[in-house]
């Protein structure tokens, strides 16, 4: 069986996906409904043979080492296709997605702006950093439910893979990548992989971050370096590398930078953390202005006290190990009582993309802090003197 014949069938049927699994006929998805083709079930080795026929030597070696491969292929006169090859119950499986080469200009469709953005999203590729848990995982899953393909990026390979697996269960293509967002070399490698294998993303959510609390004078050079490298450096790299891809592709796009309520609220207990989040907010404002002419929008998301595992991993500098653990538990209990779920932040991110929102506080406390900063900045600065968690 020739892969080219199946690609031709996709084009003729206006299909979006092909599914190859041993023990079943090839399945094709047309207008959201999956149909088996009238053909015998695929036998052991057949999917692997077809997959290898569209790989080069380097790709075959990568697949044999990692047992998973994501790539793109082009077929003359038909367009581009995304290909995901993986191991499934000891046999090779494969999913092929058609990337239509000729899409009518949005202006010709006569859609209102909100629906226009949504159409672009549903055909799009969404990359999320910090996707292994919390806001990141819920955001990836929500975008997958809305019809997007997902690149789940996280420092931990196992949690990134789990997020990608859950997105695949929703019927979307999804890939996982283990990356330290604060490592420029790793981020450049990620951007190159996305460019070569999948093309420029439609939406990038720079969500990865870490927490740190305590006195400014107990915050060491190493603490500052780590916090700036991840919380600000990761956003800078994600915005610059993928924003450039969007510009070069001359396509509408959206960058979402996740900051925090701390971007609005000075506090004696989180000087370093709040500084990084305020910097993310200002960076987003500047990028929004620069990218406006390119059709790329930039949103800042500022969540309040949301339940994630960041409270359990936040460092409390200047305290003993036992005292630090106690402070982590106090913070966790406070956030749990507030009960602002990660799903709420994910919905805010999706809404920001659909409606091209600029600065988005999430939660009553975040809205209140932003409003207080506008109406009475003097009072906000006085409240900063209160030692939270004391």
Would you spell out the secondary-structure blueprint of this structure?
Layout: H1 3-13, E1 17-20, E2 27-30, E3 33-36, H2 46-53, H3 57-66, E4 68-75, E5 79-88, E6 91-99, H4 106-109, H5 113-122, E7 125-129, H6 134-145, E8 149-154, H7 157-169, E9 174-178, H8 184-197, E10 203-206, E11 212-213, H9 221-249, E12 253-258, H10 271-291, E13 296-303, H11 310-313, E14 315-316, H12 321-338, H13 342-355, E15 359-362, H14 364-375, H15 377-383
Parallel strand pairs: 7-8, 7-10, 8-9, 10-12, 11-14, 12-13, 13-15
Antiparallel strand pairs: 1-2, 1-6, 2-3, 4-5, 5-6
Helix pairs in contact: 6-7, 6-13, 8-9, 9-10, 14-15
Q: Could you characterize the architecture of this molecule?
A:
The chain has 390 residues and is an alpha/beta fold. The protein folds into two domains: 3-99, Beta-Lactamase (2-Layer Sandwich), CATH 3.30.450.90; 106-383, Rossmann fold (3-Layer(aba) Sandwich). 48% of the residues lie in helices and 21% in strands. It is built from 15 helices and 15 strands. The strands form three sheets. A seven-stranded parallel β-sheet has the order 9-8-7-10-12-13-15, with helices on both faces. A six-stranded antiparallel β-sheet has the order 3-2-1-6-5-4. Helix 8 runs parallel beside helix 9. The N and C termini lie far apart (69 Å). Residues 101-106 and 108-123 have low confidence and may be disordered.
Task: Tell me briefly what this model is.
With 390 residues, this protein is an alpha/beta fold. The protein folds into two domains: 3-99, Beta-Lactamase (2-Layer Sandwich); 106-383, Rossmann fold, CATH 3.40.50.720.
